[in-house]
Amino acid sequence: GESVGLHLPTLSVQEGDNSIINCAYSNSASDYFIWYKQESGKGPQFIIDIRSNMDKRQGQRVTVLLNKTVKHLSLQIAATQPGDSAVYFCAEKFQGNKLVFGAGTILRVKS
Amino acid sequence: ETGVTQSPTHLIKTRGQQVTLRCSSQSGHNTVSWYQQALGQGPQFIFQYYREEENGRGNFPPRFSGLQFPNYSSELNVNALELDDSALYLCASSLNGQLNQPQHFGDGTRLSIL
Predict the structure, then answer these.
(1) CB contact under 8 A, B33 and A97
(2) How far is the alpha carbon of B4 from chain A, nearest alpha carbon, in Å?
(3) pLDDT one-digit tens code per residue, B13-31
């Protein structure tokens, strides 16, 4: 089927700690994955992407890990800041041109 | 570089009416995708336009239709509005829809159906 799900709907972390947001995807044929951040009243903002021929990709303070064996994706945010508070979505590229999104994880950063 | 812009930002309609939402793609992007985001959920793919033609469609009825213009801007039209059509409608642009390129989103149009 077409579904991308998240293990934890809400994640609370202390400012300065690392955050890990997890995502399970269902389509083993998907070859491209993206993480988005959505703040209240705004559209999703691209964070980082990864292709299925990779298992890790790093950006500025963020790392995406892909485990195709168990169809699992994670987003790691280093030194989490209050500005990181938002809803985070993972999405998989499906049937060539369609993004399938999960329900989202709320990240709350405590100061 | 100009990002994705959508208009209007908010809209209120009644059941049975028709609505047109507009999107200007990010400069240099030739592909536009439309999504519906209900409150508390992830965006759901409606359809994509590439080179002025529909290039993939999600599980939405025919009363959801669209257009893409030569300048790559796009419209989403919804006929016979229903209460469940109340949502945030998002437009995303990208390069060459079939390739693995990130889609960049606008801030959406909040549509409320009374």
Answers:
(1) yes
(2) 10
(3) 999 999 999 999 998 899 9
